[in-house]
Amino acid sequence: AIEAYDNAIALNDENAWYFVNRGSAKHSMGDEDGAIADYDQSLRLDRRMADAYIGKSNVYLGRQDLENAMSFVNEALEAQPRNAMALGARGWIFYKMDNFEEAMQDYNQSIRYAPRMPVTYNNRGVCFAAVANFDRAITDYSRAIELVEYSPITYANRGTAYFTQGDFESAAEDFEKAVEMAPNLVEAMNSLAWFRCVCPDDQFRDGEAALATAKAACEATRWENWTAVDTYAAACAETGDFAEAKKWAAKAVELAPADRVPACRDRLNLYEQDTPFRSNEGKTSEPDQRDRRFPVPEDGDSEG
């Protein structure tokens, strides 16, 4: 894709869409500086290019720089106040700030302008789940799945909502569907493994299967993702290997963000007493903000 955009830019270096699209491709490849450079060039050509501001916002969001992420998405909305993608992007930043009321308002407005954008329903569902409104979360996740068949993260999130409500059969179906759709998607593997090793209903637990799935998730993230490591520790405990459970639970404590450390320590304390962890509180999967649409090159209208 980057090579194709290079060729397009060589033929016409005054088309702002070519730069914003190449920036998106570079961001997907992990070239954040190159992405920002392309977004900036797009804005030099067209100051109203909301997608370029959104792209820059997503780069800073990935860096956990919420202040700059919010600043750039607000510029997108100044340029195009009815831009559904920008409203959804700002909603996600508000969610990351734990400002769920503002996030909901942005998602509601985004849906009014673009009622068929699945990611908005998924993300609003995540917000509903955060305030323990699981019925509304399931409704939003289901709508997202209706709009696009390939929805592994949304299936995993809906499974988590079902899990929390105690509907273990529906949860199992959704977690399995997520992994079936995306066998290498860490979020899906992690959700399924967690369910299989901590579910309070014996018939849904499978320690050996959970251990294999959790190990694959950890290997895919080089044992640096705290929630995957935490799940692996729980799976070790479920299979009775408490020495490994303690080892990896301690690692999860090291890796986890400050607000998750107490829960990780509680699990570590359980494993030190040779006790496996039981819960119906699942792990919500967050979408990769680099995974965004590529605008139409010539006549694209990013206002939805």
| First-to-last CA distance | 24 Å
Number of helices: 16
Q: Stretches where pLDDT falls below 50 for ≥5 residues?
A: 290-304
Task: Give the CA-based shape.
Answer: globular
Total number of strands: 0
Radius of gyration: 21 Å
Roughly what fraction of the amino acids lie in strands? under 5%
Structural class: mainly alpha
Helix share bin: 55-70%
In this structure, how is the largest beta sheet organized?
none
Mean pLDDT: 93
How do the helices and strands follow one another from N- to C-terminus? HHHHHHHHHHHHHHHH
List the helices and strands and how they pair.
Blueprint: H1 2-11, H2 16-28, H3 32-45, H4 50-62, H5 66-79, H6 84-96, H7 100-113, H8 118-130, H9 134-147, H10 152-165, H11 168-181, H12 186-198, H13 207-220, H14 226-238, H15 242-255, H16 261-272
Short description:
Helices cover 70% and strands 0% of the residues. The chain has 304 residues and is mostly helical.
Describe it.
By secondary structure, this protein is an all-alpha fold. It has helices at 2-11, 16-28, 32-45, 50-62, 66-79, 84-96, 100-113, 118-130, 134-147, 152-165, 168-181, 186-198, 207-220, 226-238, 242-255, 261-272. α2 (16-28) runs parallel beside α4 (50-62), α6 runs antiparallel to α7 (100-113) and α14 packs antiparallel against α15 (242-255). The radius of gyration is 21 Å and the shape is globular. 46% of the residues are buried.
